[in-house]
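User: quick one
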Amino acid sequence: MNYMGSLLFSLAWRNLWRNRRRTLVILFAIVLGVWAMIFTAAFMRGMSQQVLEDTINNLTGHIQIHASQYLDDPVIDHRFQLLDEALFESLNNPQIKQISSRLRVPAVIASERESTGLIMVGIDPENESGISFLEDSIVEGRYLTDPGDSGIIIGRKLAERLETRLGKRIVLMSQDKDNKITDRGFRIVGLFDTQLEALEKGFVFTGLETSEELLGIKGEVSEISILLYDINQVDVIAAELQQQNPQLDVKTWSQLEPVSKLIVDLYENFHLIWHLIVFLAMGFGIVNTLLMSVFERTREFGLFQSLGLKPGFIMGQVWVESVLLLSIGLLAGNLFAWLSVLATGEGIDVSAFAQGMELAHLSNIIPFVIISKDLILANSVVIILGMLTSLYPAWHASRLVPADAITRV
Amino acid sequence: MSTVVSCKHVNKIYRQGLIEVRALTDINLDIEAGDFICLSGPSGSGKSTLLNMIGGLDSPTSGEIIVDGQRVDQMNKSALAELRLHKIGFVFQAYNLIPVLTARENVEMVMQMQGDSKDYRKQHSLAILREVGLEGMEDRKPSELSGGQQQRVAVARAIVDKPCLVLADEPTANLDSVNADNLLKLMRDMAEQHEMTFIISTHDPLVMQRAKRLIKLHDGQIVENNKQN
Amino acid sequence: MHKLQFMLIKLFVLCLLSTQAIAADARQLIKDAIDHFRGLSSYSEASMIIHRPDWQRSMDMKIWTRGLDKSLVRITAPKKDMGNGSLLLGDDMWSYTPKINKVIKIPSSMSHQSWMGSDFSNNDVARADDLIDNYTHTILEQREEKGITIYVIESVPHDDAPVVWGKEILTVRDDHVLLEHKFYDQDGILVKQLVTREIKFISGRNLATIERMQKVDADDEWTEFRLHHIQFDADISNTTFTLSNLRNPRF
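Assistant: Done. Structure below.
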């Protein structure tokens, strides 16, 4: 069959360049389509990774453990023993990369001029480091030094709103374990800046022990945030932890942030839909062009048949021709998409639409991310659907009746 | 001498909507191996139809067509393709060649299909092109050859693998008389040298003169069937 | 040698005593000023005028207090606010609105917000006594005016004190009448001040009868508190300071 293959290939290749102009036009369409698929996929992947990353970073982690009623009513009453033996045992899992325990309660912050409600988070700075955005987002002052640190870190936008700044004191008020009002002054030791305004205005951080003292508790926390080595293991590990600690509430990031999960899933599914839409436009072009060239070559196909070539060979010839066309288009499309992504560098700044983007859980800079999975999907859609689509003109060519084909001038 | 082609009570009716057109009526014909036959008659007399049916490009409405002992009218597409590949060579009036292939490649293509080795193909195709007088033009594309030269390539391709039957449909229609005569001479020489049977449809008197046997068709019926020379 | 040492220690103790005495004085002066106003228990009638550039309104009220941590305020006029009340028990504060017939506990989140639309915050009303222990008090100035000694005291909150101010400066007379209370932010800029505009001798003591709270950056906005009548050590039933009384006024 080898000699047939090489004949097929050289016939297809030469026929491809017979009508150079037409081939280049359709090639341009394919390249444009493939470029649009991959470039858009890279944008959507960038967005979805950004959403995921932000979600994980924004204190969520991969898995969170709470007392059973905390998520319905996140108050001081719903706390749990941190040094519980069973819990300690179950957290000693080689898949778990990092653990941070937090006291997380609603509070009121007041400066000389303003006051507002927010969430106070008591953290162990060493454990928290790397699990959430905080340490990397400090823009003024310092991070917390130890669990007993009595300083407070607040968001830059919050500081603006309270008309206060680094080094000044604010008063934080909450309810202690007996539901009595408790309050104290804190000195602002650090300001953080995140791209999500809600986060900057809604959270303040102090040492875990300092917050314990304020709330009158010891050795109890409201939240454990867990980071795994592999995010794909999240459901398995969460189920294990839940089984080992039935009295506690174990939730994955997707359960905690269903909107983010929805967005990530949406993007994931939209990839394919988008590819199909682009392919639909492209596919019509390909079929149309091939059919046109088949009709033009009707006599030739008749000739092939009269020379004793089987219909399969004729079909193969047209099909190989279109696969060649697709392959060239794919190669160039991939290359251009890759170059485009390189050209965008860090990503594109969408701060002009920041309000809307924030609603969609997005930050201001959207990077373009190409991952092999998306490349494979886009290329597969084009090559597989392209090959299937090309069968039609190819089949059409093979069906021409020899006598008709030859006598038609 | 053995019979290469045999037609028995062949009828062909084309249906165009409600109108039936009788293209061939009760054709009975036996053609011996090595014959050089001219099939003549005015336009629409059924020459091309008969030729196409012998070559399996078209099928009769009724009757039997036997080529080299095989019932052509009962073959499927694939078997017909095999038959044409190995036993029949075609030469048409025009557009005989694959435009994207060179003269040599056009000739070699048929050999390639038959599974001939590369060396054999090269040697043989060059030889046959030299035989038809196209030495030095082997690597030209059809668009770079004159009409006569194109027809010579077509003849070379038709006979390169020595089929038992060569069917030529108005091969000289697009040629001037000098070229037409040359082509006919070439075909006749080839028929004699390679012992192949030629059936040539034409209304060119030049062709009729050169034929060993003249079959005249009129309104789908054989009106004359004479040996000459 | 021994003698010298003895002298030094004695000097040191003396100094210590005197500074303690001054510090105690400042603290005591403020405590006295607060106690002086509230007494062990009291019943008073007062009105509050809230002034804004384009409007002004006045409210009449009755106030019952016992010690530093129990008080009940009831609005008597105008008609639309009649029956509104606030009850303070320790750090907790409730308010009652007859229109919706509901007692609401003032959540901690509202403690920095305005009390009844005035320039006083809920905290100003509820947490006056915090002024004593969360601060370091220093006498800045002491002067005589018409035979009365006037003290100017600077109160700086401790680092962890639940106080937003950078410092507060109080001017108090030796008869415990508070003349001025200024609130400074942490940059030393005056934010708001309480000024006594009228002092009268009623119920056996000198009292500030008109006090005005004014934010510095809002010229024509102030709230004035006018005391019409006060009775100290009044006989007040224990059931006065209860939620049921707040809801169903018997006084």
